[in-house]
TrEMBL record:
Keywords recorded for this protein, A-Z: Signal
Protein name (record): Lipoprotein
Superkingdom in the source lineage: Bacteria
Species, as recorded: Streptomyces liliifuscus
Signal sequence annotation: 1-24
Length: 158
């Protein structure tokens, strides 16, 4: 008799857990999850770059990577201080900051991020009109700007 009660109790617990997981809220989403821009980095070149966004609640990250925008010098991991400023639809800006980057040899494509920022539900953010500022070795500043709207469109956060 004790085995039957234990089996029924385990089945009820498993059912309750499954129902709880099915009703748990999902992670917030950003649409689209990636977009491309053509960036001009002045004397440091430019080209196509991919922005990849993620969101968890009001925290969001954006990573920028490009095989066309290249590093002028060999750089160690997490050595670039980056600020990506995105323009909000309706006015204002949102900054994404961080010091995350892989090690890069001179001539390698640039990758920075994930850069973190705070978003609100419904925020629509566009790279065009904003900038990416990278500070290397504490004194070399590279500023990149988008040469048109990001494709397929702005990031819209839940």
């Amino acid at each position: 008799m004790r085995c039957k009660r234990l089996g029924i109790g385990a089945a009820l617990a498993a059912g309750t857990l499954a129902a709880g997981l099915a009703l748990a809220p999902g992670a917030a989403a950003v649409v689209p999850q990636s977009a491309t821009i053509i960036a001009d980095c002045g004397a440091y070149g430019g080209g196509e770059a991919t922005l990849t966004a993620t969101q968890t609640g009001t925290s969001a990250t954006i990573t920028l990577s490009s095989s066309e925008i290249t590093s002028p010098l060999a750089l160690g991991a997490d050595s670039i201080v980056s600020t990506l400023t995105m323009v909000k639809a309706g006015g204002g800006t949102t900054a994404f900051t961080g010091t995350k980057n892989p090690a890069m040899d001179a001539g390698d494509g640039v990758s920075v991020g994930p850069l973190t920022g705070t978003v609100a539900p419904g925020d629509s953010l566009e790279a065009n009109g904003g900038s990416l500022r990278m500070v290397i070795f504490g004194f070399i500043t590279v500023t990149c700007t988008a040469q048109g709207p990001q494709s397929p469109g702005p990031f819209v956060f839940e």
